[in-house]
Amino acid sequence: MKTRSNLSELIWLLALIIVTQSCADDDQPTEALTLPEQIDQYLADHQSTDSPGLSIAIRQAGQTVYQNNRGLARESGQRVIDSDTQFRVGSITKPITAIAIMQLLEQGEIGLNNKLLSFYPELPAAFEAITVEHLLTHRSGLLDYIDDNTDLSALDNVQTSTVLGFFDDTGLENLNFVPGTAGDYSNTGYVLLALIIEKVSGMSYPDYLRQNLFNPTGMTRSFVISEHQHLGDAGNNYALSFGNSLKVKGFNSLIYGASGVASTTNDLLLFMEALLSNELISQESLDLMIPSRGAIPGIADYGLGWMTGTGQYWHSADLTDNNDFWHSGGFDGYRTVLSFNPDLDLQVVILTNGGDATQEIMWGLLKLVRNHYKQ
Question: Sign of torsion, CA 311 312 314 319?
């Protein structure tokens, strides 16, 4: 059985058990407290102000109902987190990549049934049956360049522009299964989607997102980590992983598409509003994205770039409902979640930089918020 690394989706049953236990006291009746009071109390009880922390924002019924930050962006200089602090969002990048694909689909530049090799015929012949839809839904059969790689040091300084040559003689030229017959989480597929965006649009992936997603929505502090840049190069208000690290543990890869976006809770509030008001893609395109196209065992059912709330998984009922679409993210010590609950008209974004410790707090906060609106 394949073991998922910290650089893939950081979704563990153990995390749920810990969260459930840590939230036991928080499940007691709190009718006398408003939601902001409940969250403030939870943060006071679980998150110190002098360790790597988190930023949270909540929208409900079209309004921002809560926004707060607690902890350090960087231990050096005791830089505290605020709502404009930039975090690497990890795999929240994947729905952003998928939205870019849907924009090109709306323009008639891409079809979901287009073959991967029609864009990059130099890729291994074994990939011949893989379509754009297979890449979006993790049903391509592609091995994962992180989790199926026994030597992560081989990825040091590999860049998106050179990744096409990485498949030869690495084992990654093989497939796990016939495309479309099963599901298995693959970061590789989303790197290839970024390359398709570049081929079709004639722009670099970072430039495409800036021109077509970030600038139109006013997401002025969001960007893609370039192939020659660490988050620490971006300016003063950035959150370091674990509060003190610039380099990804294990390797120093600068590949985007599956990951690579840096953003803030203020910017992601704008993103959520723009998505729901059809400023980025049409409602018809969003409706195509969010239904499940199949299961990724142990993780979630998956649509076109979004995890769904369907099926039975570790997060079912406590953190997701059937109509939800959402995504979590993890990169080094960054742990993130972006959640849409249409039935409650509720959206939540939480960005953290404290590794497993802040991940537990993140899940506890999401559970608390959802329980409040379900009452």
Answer: positive
DSSP state at residue 148: T
**Which pLDDT belongs to residue 146?**
79
The answer to whether 373 touches 347, Cβ cutoff 8 Å, is no
pLDDT of 237 strictly over 90 = no
Bridge partners (DSSP) of residue 54 are 70, 352
Which residues make Cβ contacts (< 8 Å) with residue 368, sequence separation at least 6? Answer: 23, 26, 38, 39, 42
Name the pLDDT band for 150 (thresholds 50, 70, 90). low
The pLDDT value recorded for residue 327 is 98
According to CATH, the superfamily of the domain at 13-350+360-374 is DD-peptidase/beta-lactamase superfamily (3.40.710.10)
**Rounded-to-integer distance, Cα 42 and Cα 35, Å:** 10
Closest CA to 348 of 39, 87, 81, 57: 57
pLDDT digits (tens, 9 = 90+) for 22-39: 444 555 454 579 999 999
Angle at 313 between CA 307 and CA 319, to 5 degrees: 70
Q: What is the pLDDT of residues 179-206, one digit of tens each?
A: 999 999 999 999 999 999 999 999 999 9
Q: What is the mean pLDDT of the chain?
A: 87
Q: Where are the domains of the chain?
A: 13-350+360-374
> In angstroms, rounded to a whole number, what is the distance separating the alpha carbons of residues 47 and 68?
12
Whole-number Cα distances in Å, 250 to 6, 150, 229, 266: 10, 11, 17, 31
Q: How far apart are CA 325 and CA 280, in angstroms?
A: 16
Quote the strand ranges of the chain, DSSP E. Answer: 54-60, 63-70, 72-74, 79-80, 87-88, 223-224, 261-263, 295-296, 300-301, 307-308, 325-331, 334-341, 346-352
